[in-house]
Each structure stands twice: as C-alpha cells, then as structure tokens.
Amino acid sequence: MKNLFIIISTALFFASCVEDITLPLEGGTKMLVVEGGLTTDTLQHRIMLSLTNDFYDKSRPAPVSGATVTVTDGATVYTLTEDTAGVYLTPPFAARVGATYRLDVHCGEGDFWSESSIDYQINPIDSVVITEHYRRENYLTMYIFVKDQAEIQNYYMGKVAVNDSLRNDSINRWFYIDDMYFNGRYIDGNFPVYGFKKEPDGEPDDYRVLRPDSRVTVYAYGISHDYYRFISEVNSSGSANPFMGPPAPPRTNIQPAGKACGFFYVASASRKSVVYLPKPDEPVMGGE
Amino acid sequence: MKHLIPIIFLLISATAYSAPKDSAAVELNEVEISSRRNDANVKELSMSSQKLPILAIKKMPALLGEVDIIKSIQLLPGVQAAAEGTSGFSVRGGNTDQNLILLDDAAIYNASHLMGFFSVFNNEVVEDATLYKGDIPAIYGGRLSSVLDVSTKKPNAEKFKGSGGIGLISSRLTLETPIIKEKLSAYVSGRRTYADLFLPLAPNEDIRNNTLYFYDLNAKINYDIDAKNRVFVSGYWGRDKFGAQGLAGLDFGNGAAVARWNHLFSNTFFMNASLIYTQYSYALDMAMNEFGINWTSRVNDYTAKVDFVKLFGEKSKLRFGANGTYHYFKPGEIKNTGKSQIINDTVFNAQDAGEYAVYASNEHNIIDNLLSVKYGIRGTAFRNGKTYFTAEPRIGAVLLLPRIKSSVKAAYSHTTQNLLLGSNATGGTPFDVWYPINPNIKPQQSNQYTAGFFHNFFDNRLETSVELYYKTISDLIDFKDNPDFMGNASHIETEILTGKGRSYGAEFLFRKSTGALTGWISYTYSHSYRTVAGINFGNEYRSPFDRPHNFVAVLSWDINKFVNISANWIYNTGQPVTYPTGKMWYGNRLIPVFSGERNNYRFPDYHRLDLSATVKCRKRKYWQGEWNFSLYNAYARKNVWAVMFIQSSEKPDELQTKMLYLFSVVPSVTYNFYF
Lengths: 288, 675
Prior knowledge:
The structure holds two protein chains of two kinds. Chain A is mainly β. Chain A folds into two domains: 32-120 and 249-267, Immunoglobulin-like (Sandwich), CATH 2.60.40; 127-225 and 270-286, Sandwich (Immunoglobulin-like), CATH 2.60.40. In chain A, 8% of the residues lie in helices and 42% in strands. In chain A, a hairpin with a 2-residue loop joins strand 13 and strand 14. In chain B, strand 15 (211-226) and strand 16 (229-244) form a beta hairpin. By secondary structure, chain B is mostly beta strands. Chain B is globular and about 75 Å long. Chain B has one domain (4-674): TonB-dependent receptor, beta-barrel domain (Maltoporin, Chain A). Strand 18 of chain A pairs antiparallel with strand 41 (642-647) of chain B.
C-alpha cells in the first residue's frame, strides 16, 4: 500500500517523458565561429576557427585552416601561427587592462574582425578552501576568499584544474557570475564556487572526484559584460519550452554581422592553487 | 442547462428585489435580474462573449479530477491554452498578460496553482464565468484582449448546506449557512492538495523532506439589508508551497478581498459600490550552510469603484461609473537570511502607479425587433512618472432578421493596457513580475472589429454562430532576443521592443444547451502576427499563439438521472517555435545555432481526448454523493511540451533533439458530496 501511494503520487507529478524527435530543419548558411581571446597572463593566447554545419550533420563542425590571423592593440601587431588544424597561437605576450585589441581573420570564407577590451584588473584570490560538504557525506565544497571591487560592475568567469587538468573544461560547466548582489563585499569563504566528490558512485558527476594530495588550481577571470552575457546566452540555448522565451542566437562581437558567430574576449586573470590534504574536522586552507 | 443558473438566481433575487418588467437582461455584476431568453444569443447586443455556468463546467472531464474553470475556458472558440497543462490562455492571438481575470471584480495577477495544472478558482464557490474576447463592455478596462469575469455564488440564506469532494491529489469542503435567516448568510470553502502527505513514505530521505502542496480559502458573507440594499464581503487567499530538502523553498499566491454595496434607487436605477484589494506575491528562499537568501516580489492593488445602471423603459439602458486603482509594484527584494551576510540587501525599483477610469455606455433599442445599437466610451488616466490619457470607444449593433430567425451583429472596441508582464515565457511561471508602463513605455492599444451571424435551430435548442474578427495592436510590447529580466528588473524598458500586431480569424460555434445531450462543437481559423524592429530582422513574425486551426468538441450526455458521460476532443495546429538551423563548436561543446528568425517552425499538431463518467449515488436524507471517473488524454497522445537540443553522450559530434511531453493517459477518480 505504501508503495502504491508513492507510485501514484510520483506518476501524477512526474508522468512526463522524454523521447527522441526528428525535426524538419532546414540547413542554414555556414558561418565562421571564432573562439578565444587574450588574458593578462604572459602566454601564447589561442584563437580557434571553425565553421558551423547542419544541425543533424553527424560530423563535428570543421576547423578552418590556413587563415591569416592577427591581433593588434594599435601599436603592436601580433601574427598568429596555426598550431593544429583551426587552432592559432599568438607569440607570448600579456594583454593590457584598458587597451582595445582588434582581431582580424582572413580566410576562404572572407574577412572577419572584432574588437574587445577589459577595463579592470581582477582582484587576487586571497585563499582557497576545500572542506567537507556540510550535509552530503561524499562531497567536498570549495570556497574562495576574495574582495569584490565596489566602484565597478564586475563579471567573473572561473575554471578549476586538478593537477593541471581542467575539470570544468566545457562552457556548460564554467563558473560565471556578476557582482550585482555582492558588489563591494569581501567574499569570506561562505560562498561555494565548486563541488568535488571523494569517491565515484556511478553518477554522471563522477568527473568531480578529487583524490588526496591533488593540486587544485582556481583560474579566475575578470571579463566584460558582453562576454559574460555571451556565455550566459550560449548556456540558455538548449531548449524551446514554455517556461522560457524563444531561443535566440547569442550576441556575438564578430563582424560582419550574420556571417560569423562566437566571441573574441580580453580578460584579466588571477589564479590560486591549493593541495588537497584531507584531515578530519579540519578544512584545508592555503595557497601558493 | 445554461439557463438554469440565471433562473435560480432570478428566483433568489426576486425575493429581495422588485424586479423591473424588463425583458432584457440587466446585469450589475453578481446582481443578475434576468429572464434571459433562450434566443438571447441571437437577439442580444453582446457578441464575442461566452458565459459558462458552473453546472456545465462541472460536467467536463478534468485533469486529475479537479474541475477547473480556466481549463474549460480554454475550450471556447478563439481561446487557446498557452501550453499543455497551464492556466495561461491566449484570446484571439493575444498574449497571456492581455487577459483581465477577475474574481468578484478583484484582478487576479497569476491564476495558476501547481505550475498551472490548476487555477485559483475553486469550483465549489463559483457561480459562473463569463469571457469577453472582443466587444468588451465599457465597464471593463485595463487589458487588450479579453476579460474573464468569475463571480462567486451568494451564500445560502435558507438552510445550512455543505459540499465537497475527495480526489486523488486534492480535496475540498464548503460550508454555508444562514446566520439570520433570509438576511445574513455566509460560506467558507477550502481546498488543499495532499500529494505531499505521501512523501514521508518515500524510501529516499531527501524526498521525504520535500514540500509540495497548495491550498486556497474562499469566504463570503452576504447581508440583504432590505429590499433596496445589500452588502457582501468576499475574500480569497491561496498559496502554493514547494520545498526541497530544506535547501530551497518557494511560496506564491494571490489574495483578494471585495466589499460591495448594491443599492436600488428605484426599480430602474441601480448602483454597485465596491472597495477591492488584491495582491500577488512570491517568496523564494535558499539556504546552504551559513549562506541564505530570501527573494520576494509582489504586486498590490487598492481599488474603489462605483457602477450605475439606469433603465429607460424597454428602449434604453444606460451604464456609467468610475473607478480608481492604486497599484504598488515591487519587482524584487533580496535579503540575507543566513549567518553569513554575503549579499547586499537590495530592492529593485519598487514603484507605485495610479489608474483612473470613467465610462458611460448606452444600449438603445431603435426599432423593436429589428435594430438595436450600443455605444460607449471609457476614459483612462494612468500615472507613473508621466500621465497617459486614453479614450476607448466601444460601439456595436444588432440587426434582427425575424423571417429567418437570425441576426447580424457588428462591434468595434478600442482597449488600452497600462501594465505588462516581465516575461517572454508563454506558459507563465510563479516568478512572473508585473510592471507598470512608465515615461519610456507607452500604453499598448488595440482596435478590434467584429461581425457575426447568429441563428438558432430547433426552437432555439441548437445555437449556431459565425464570428469574424480583425484586431490590430499599436505600441505592442515584445522582448528582445535573450532578454535579462533578473538583471534589469529595475529597468525593464531596456529589454522591451515595441511594434505592431495584427490578428484575424473566423469562429464557428454549434452549441446545444438543453436536453440530455449538451455541449458545443467549434472550429476556429485564425492568425496572429507581430512586426517589431529588432526582432526577426524587422520582418513580420508569428505570435507565439498563431495556431490557425482549432477544433473543439465538448459533449455531455445525461444517460439517465444517475449517470452522465462526457467527452472533450481538442485539435490545434502546433504552436510556433524557434528551432536552430545548425550547430557550432564552442567551449568544448556543440551548441545549436539560431538564425535570428523567431517562431520559424511549429511543434507537431496538438490533439487530445478526455473522457469522464459521473455516477450519482442514491440520495439519502441528508447526503448526496457522486463518483467521477475521468481519463485525461485518453488515447495517450504524446503532445510536445518542449524540445531540447542535447549533445549526444555516445556520439559527441552529434546534437540530438528530444521532446518532452507532460502527460500520457491520466486516470483519476473523485468522490463529490453534498449535504
């Protein structure tokens, strides 16, 4: 009887079902996709070029090889070299806060360009804490200590690496937030930014497993409102349902309009690392 | 059947009022002194409106056995459900926020319970519901597309009575009693879902700690002071409560209170004076360790109104009145509730506004049994930083064709809307926030032209009509692609684009209201389009409610005095939807690519059959029971509710499309009782 009630109530509220459906989609015009940007770290910055393809095409969108790609701040022109197919690297340099960078791409699909900048340096992360989840036994929570800048609107994007391997390496797993609700506050370690698991348990989030003695690095970026919005819009484009508005193309900053998509960004960067050394009843704190 | 309620009401009213010998219906809200003729649909001036008595609504098959007025309204010609299962509806292609929903004249800002599967209207206390979808009388204003006027019943002043129902997921109970016989009477009615009562039986502790229910309470007290004066106070309070493991909670609902004085100056001059309060609010709580926030939002109205009716013999009926509403809007307020004060307590642009209206309209019988006309105007002033004045003319005429027992009607109405819903979700959510227009947002205005031919067959037992309409909207509001409602809650105008809209259609209705077999069959052909610079490259696009073909059959058959069977069948062209045209690789993911065209495809066509059977038990001295068995979506049609674009986990180079449907066949059983 007990089970019957559960079955009935569950059936009534969760009787919905998911099935495959094939939509009568018409192919669209192929567009150039630009992904990548510059940060204030000194390194070889990466720009990736590819083409859109038909929705039901069984292959991954093709990279665009052989393009001429340059970045300039108006004074210096950096010419990118193709590393692997569709992946272009700048010479090592650090982007400057306040400078406007122009990207130019010349390829078989035509000429494309974009401009981007970041107008603030992200504050350094003071420390990182990994501690037991307060109620779920197999889980760990990572907190950061950092001061938000009061005088400006900040937009943050974060990635987490374990032993130099990114754990949230896809856009749907990136951490991104604006400071609308905490502008000017000191983030005092009570705001969870990422979750780990101690042991795999067969669930889809097993990629979050964190072993003792692992080195965890938080990469934090100060990004522009436009790039924040682009990430948010990409992550909102996964369905057409009555509880959301009509899906729409994420706003791109790649020109000419209608012929390209993606985003070219400039970000100010900060990072902090910690080695996970679990001790009972004692959180791990520190940084390097 | 549809004449039964007015007749009963007439008998009740006749004891308190000296009714004028007027053959036309004189309606002053719930004061209905009516001898509505069975050919009224042909002879009356009104068109584009439908009145559904609660007795007819109760016979219809119902989702989860809970008869619902809005689900019934969604079956009328020219009306569409905004989405499967929701309480939102579109009238003649209009947006869901263009419907004024009234409960005893109190505006209901979000009529949904349980994500829209139920509405706020408890059928135990409802007298009837009238939907005006065009030719809106001048007494109403504030919305572009329709008025749904729901009236609660008058408490029984003769004897103590009770009624209720026990269903699979909800129950209700109504008690009504005279306090001073034939003078003072009251009822109280409550309804609650109890699916959550079974949650403690769940094996998973996380599920056990969840909360999931709604309740609502209606109460009314009526005092027939003398033959010329009557007062009543009615109230409504309803909340939905969701809670997940102590981590998050959602609480939302409406409240309304109405105090009204009906006064008869003479047998030909009546007045209603009302004070009305209404509110909709929600609260979202989240807590995690020492971190906790509370997000609240609400809208309040305080309204005073007075309405008069003056009869000039059988030739003319003059209505006039005035009303004023003080609106208060708080789109959002966020506060810390945890030990850790991590956020800044913030209020998003709380604002108030005043809305004032005067109106006058006259129905004039120019030539007996041949030609009647009506004309009226409503003037509105709306103040929020800037005061907008609008004039809304309403005119109409009926030309009787006695030889063929038919009539031709035509009407024009101009409507204005000064409020808007800050959401582009067609289905409606508890988080929907209302905003007033401001110096940067003009009022939306609509012109609707309607014409119809009305004819009854078989001595008025079969009513038929065809209505044509054409509607335009200026300063129409739509939202940009990818609007940010939360981020711009204080500046909603930054997410708005304005343009124009047009809708047109033909509605065919066959309705039988008497005899053992009752119901209606309707077919509607319609289109609804918008043109807004900045959307769809500036080209005209389908509104989300452009669904050209709509066929509905609602049939109810009293097999004998104990058994009734009913069936609904609904067919709709698929809802417009925006689909991608390709895919791209970005951020290590496959992402759907959209062209920028809006509503460029349609969901598959929607159709559904509902069945129900009601079996009355043998009447006992103080108790009458009945069982209702219903099947929603009887042949288990998988109607698409949402489509998702998902990167395949097995083939990561491919995007898959998945459809979500809400319901397969949903059986239910309810036991109703009366004592």
